[in-house]
Amino acid sequence: GAGVSQTPSNKVTEKGKYVELRCDPISGHTALYWYRQSLGQGPEFLIYFQGTGAADDSGLPNDRFFAVRPEGSVSTLKIQRTERGDSAVYLCASSFFELPSSGNTIYFGEGSWLTVV
Amino acid sequence: GQNIDQPTEMTATEGAIVQINCTYQTSGFNGLFWYQQHAGEAPTFLSYNVLDGLEEKGRFSSFLSRSKGYSYLLLKELQMKDSASYLCAVSPFSGTYKYIFGTGTRLKVLA
């Protein structure tokens, strides 16, 4: 697609429920990142994939959070037993490859706004 | 630990120049990025500095001093559409976009 696509754009769920957030990166981008942004804060790293494998999941807050990218393209972030503190915007980003440089810009999606009530 | 500091809010007048500062203390350094984020939208890339000095791109310039752990974003000829949050981010780790972000500076441009 033309840009990073995230669905749903908005999700309201009850405390304790299971949620899946989907990210469709720009075609051909091998690196994919998930960030979480709370109100008034900067994005916080969660996990990144190079291809199908999670190269670094050190930012996942606890074992209720899990992410997959089975075919090296679309990724799903899964949150079990949601808590009110999970309410945030979940941002996905992708790039051609890992190395940061001005020629390898990272592109963010619009985000999935999650509200846990 | 990793720490990035930037002012929370700034106000400037249309047509003016504004400088947004960012200081960082990180375990490593592989580049500093500035992003613009309008309310409810995705962050969009503005600039990247990895060497000391000034990078200019149209109305936007970004400066880096690695020895001081300091950067600034300079916006010239401010327009109303420049009202947004400006995020400073550092890549401390070699080879990845595992950024550490500041909390962002909310810029209001007044007519």
Report the biggest beta sheet of chain A as strand number plus sense, adding barrel if it closes: 7 strands, mixed
Which oligomeric state applies? heterodimer
Low-confidence stretches of chain B: none
Q: What is the residue-averaged pLDDT of chain A?
A: 91
**Helix and strand composition category of chain A:** mainly beta
Elements of chain B, N to C (H/E)? EEEEEEEEEEE
Spatial shape of chain B: globular
Number of strands of chain A: 11
Feature tags:
heterodimer, A: 117 residues, mainly beta, seven-stranded mixed beta sheet, four-stranded antiparallel beta sheet, B: 111 residues, six-stranded mixed beta sheet, five-stranded antiparallel beta sheet, 11 strands, 0% helix, globular
Protein architecture, described:
The complex is a heterodimer of chains A (117) and B (111). Helices cover 0% and strands 47% of the residues of chain A. With 117 residues, chain A is mainly beta. In chain A, the strands form 2 sheets. In chain A, strands 2, 4, 5, 6, 9, 10 and 11 form a 7-stranded mixed β-sheet that branches. In chain A, strand 4 and strand 5 form a beta hairpin. The radius of gyration of chain A is 13 Å and the shape is globular. The mean pLDDT of chain A is 91. Chain B has 111 residues and is an all-beta fold. Chain B is built from no helices and 11 strands.
Quick overview:
Chain A contains no helices and 11 strands. Chain A has 117 residues and is an all-beta fold.
Layout: helices, strands, pairs:
The complex is a heterodimer of chains A (117) and B (111).
Chain A: E1 5-7, E2 10-13, E3 19-24, E4 31-37, E5 44-50, E6 53-56, E7 65-68, E8 75-79, E9 88-95, E10 107-108, E11 112-116
Chain B: E1 3-5, E2 9-13, E3 18-25, E4 32-37, E5 44-49, E6 53-57, E7 60-65, E8 70-75, E9 84-90, E10 100-101, E11 105-110
Parallel strand pairs in B: 2-11
Antiparallel strand pairs in B: 1-3, 3-8, 4-5, 4-9, 6-7, 7-8, 9-10, 9-11
